[in-house]
């Protein structure tokens, strides 16, 4: 479970933040002094720190520097009651994750904490090459010739201080490759930040990347330090770079060429030392021809490229991936499925896998839930994979979910645990339709659903959302 450390000398603030942020998915520890905070940092090893810059026993920047010395990869979120403080801004320049003004909007703070936890996961969970998984590792699975070429490319490119473009369809594992490049680079002890260009509106992406000056636009009530400045000395991962607007592309090109930029609304030239790893599932050549992507930026990025093959082009890796995902599902679902029947494996190997490795993982998780013995049989696989008709659950073509009929069918067949199953089926339909509507973008989906991204991910990962007839689209 991720752990959050809050350091603030105001008792009411500590109590409010602990009550508002602690959950079954996040544990919270608190400290009222810098000395106590440093002791808890060493003992509890938190994933994220919230720091008030005014404490009774130490200056804000001094404590921030001590935290970064002791735990350089732990994201630190600054909170302050002083809107004009230079301390918080200076901390951002030195690598703070974000800073917020008191009184803090709890909903916004919760989202910032979740983003920081995700960043911490990307920094700390090692992406390893085709090894048996251990705690704190994500293996990149595959013995096929295509994957061997990927491994060799990572080994050649990672130590070189050059920018990299990762190309591949959705679900092929581009984030894993980006993390492997970072973790095997000379910048592995420096900051690693990631941003999904498709998940942020164009109007906000430029500010998110480059920061802005106070008054630069409506709502810019304070100076903001962007991701490029925060990642100084380290690595910035730009996922889905094909969705970036032409104006933002021009500023990214300048950073790649000169390692310089200006904040939005500012005239000061800021020099940075940042390695950029970009990724996209789009065909950038076609976007260049259509005038939607700058050719000079494409050629600047395209110098060092890693192509990730789709699963349909490396089907010899499917048995390895199935074994890996079977172990993960057993551990997550507390099941003991030991293998896959030969005819079921043949169906998995014959499927075209448009959703690639991510789709295969969802299918195995679904099949493990359906399994009643120690072997996955053909009947355990979703209809979308085995090619048969979907199981009858009371849905009609006009109404994808007839709850009343579903309950009646369950009563007629003596189905146990009716309430949980019906709620799960409703969740399945709602999540499936919303995710399909937004193309799998979880940030947009969570906004439409009115739930946090962490809650959405928990629903997608939980047993109850895995009873669907085929895998849900997912955007990690």
What structural class results from the helix and strand content?
alpha/beta
Number of strands: 16
Straight-line N-to-C gap: 18 Å
| Sheet with the most strands: spatial strand order | 2-1-3-4-5
Low-pLDDT ranges: 388-400, 463-476
CATH class of the largest domain: Alpha Beta
Largest sheet: 5 strands, parallel
Mean pLDDT comes to 84
Give the % helix.
Answer: 40-55%
Using the CA coordinates, give the radius of gyration: 24 Å
What are the defining features of this structure?
single chain, 45% helix, 5-stranded parallel sheet, Rossmann fold, alpha/beta, 476 residues, Helicase, Ruva Protein, domain 3
Question: Can you offer a commentary on this structure?
Answer:
The protein has 20 helices and 16 strands. α19 packs across α20. The strands form five sheets. It has a five-stranded parallel sheet, sandwiched between helices. A five-stranded parallel sheet has the order 9-10-13-8-14. It has a two-stranded parallel ribbon with strand order 6-7. It is globular, with a radius of gyration of 24 Å. The chain has 476 residues and is α/β, with parallel strands linked by helices.
